[in-house]
Amino acid sequence: MTDIGFIGLGNMGGPMAANLSRAGHRVRGFDLSASACATASENGVEIVGSAADVCAGAEVVFTMLPSGRHVLDLYEAGGLLAAAAPGTLFVDTSTIEVGESHAARDVAVKAGHRALDAPVSGGVVGATAGTLTFMVGGEPEDFQRAEPFLDVMGKRAVHCGASGAGQATKICNNMILAISMVGVSEAFVLGEELGVSHEALFDVISTATGQCWALNTNCPVPGPVPTSPANRDFDPGFATALMVKDLGLAQRAADAAGVRTALGKHVHELYARYNEEGGADRDFSGIINAIRASAGE
Ligand code: NAD
């Protein structure tokens, strides 16, 4: 049994903290949202009065927050780093900018602690089932220290390299995902115009060279994959607003690194427009509706 602190008990952090508690750890948690705290409490998380209070006795402190600004604010102004015992391992599982991730690690180490970036793939379903994939950046010995806890919350944890490498891996994956979803959606809309049925396209492409997760698992038309969000009016799944956030992170990282990601930039623009035009809370595969609407323009 290990004492663990957990801040950010929302859609992702709530079930992750619950899984740590279920595995027999003592989890002290905090969230600004009373309802998030109430749900976590029902799932075995001990709710404390402030973010800094989660550090009492904690060997490891997890954060699962909306952005890098939230993480940095809590680490410093929020008093987390000051409240923790020396050598505490801070594991940030939020998806944030690579540069902010470096900054979070730097302030944690300067305060006498250890730090990892460990963003996740797998969504709320994976967080609940304990089947997330963790992409981890930081020192190998810190990764080994975190692994037993990551194994409780996920099915796979990959050490991707030095600090920031986990965030970098996450945004590269999601950039590919957005590009492939736009490609699959364009193909279905073209198929519609050319008189090919959704079923025929799916039957061939899902086993041909065009196969990919966007088509085989998250197919943007209803029918071929009964569990895909297209069958439930694009109820997410992975919401467009989150995809826009991740594509923005990817583009800022590309700009900072001087790398030209022409398709990444283009799909970021397409998703930003779809987001503004009503798609924000729809699954990102709903982009097919925007592509279909623009077919005649
Ligand atoms: P969420 O909004 O449901 O949860 C974030 C929680 O942080 C909220 O409950 C909020 O009240 C809390 N919070 C904000 N500021 C706080 C503070 N100062 N102190 C304490 N609590 C505070 O978001 P989520 O869907 O759980 O996503 C969290 C992170 O995980 C994001 O970085 C997101 O990009 C990433 N992510 C989400 C998914 C997904 O499918 N939802 C998948 C992969 C990664």
TrEMBL record:
GO terms for molecular function: 3-hydroxyisobutyrate dehydrogenase activity. It is an enzyme of class 1 (oxidoreductase). PROSITE patterns: 3_HYDROXYISOBUT_DH (PS00895). Its EC number is 1.1.1.31. InterPro entries: 3-OH-isobutyrate_DH-rel_CS, 6-PGluconate_DH-like_C_sf, 6PGD_dom2, 6PGDH_NADP-bd, HIBADH, HIBADH-like_NADP-bd, HIBADH-related, NAD(P)-bd_dom_sf. Keywords: Branched-chain amino acid catabolism, NAD, Oxidoreductase. It holds the Pfam family NAD_binding_2. It catalyses: 3-hydroxy-2-methylpropanoate + NAD(+) = 2-methyl-3-oxopropanoate + NADH + H(+). Pathway: Amino-acid degradation; L-valine degradation. It comes from the Bacteria. Residues 3-161 form the 6-phosphogluconate dehydrogenase NADP-binding domain. Gene3D superfamilies: N-(1-d-carboxylethyl)-l-norvaline Dehydrogenase, domain 2, NAD(P)-binding Rossmann-like Domain. Residues 164-290 form the 3-hydroxyisobutyrate dehydrogenase-like NAD-binding domain. Belongs to the HIBADH-related family. This is 3-hydroxyisobutyrate dehydrogenase. It comes from Saccharopolyspora endophytica. The lineage of its organism: Bacteria, Bacillati, Actinomycetota, Actinomycetes, Pseudonocardiales. The gene is mmsB.
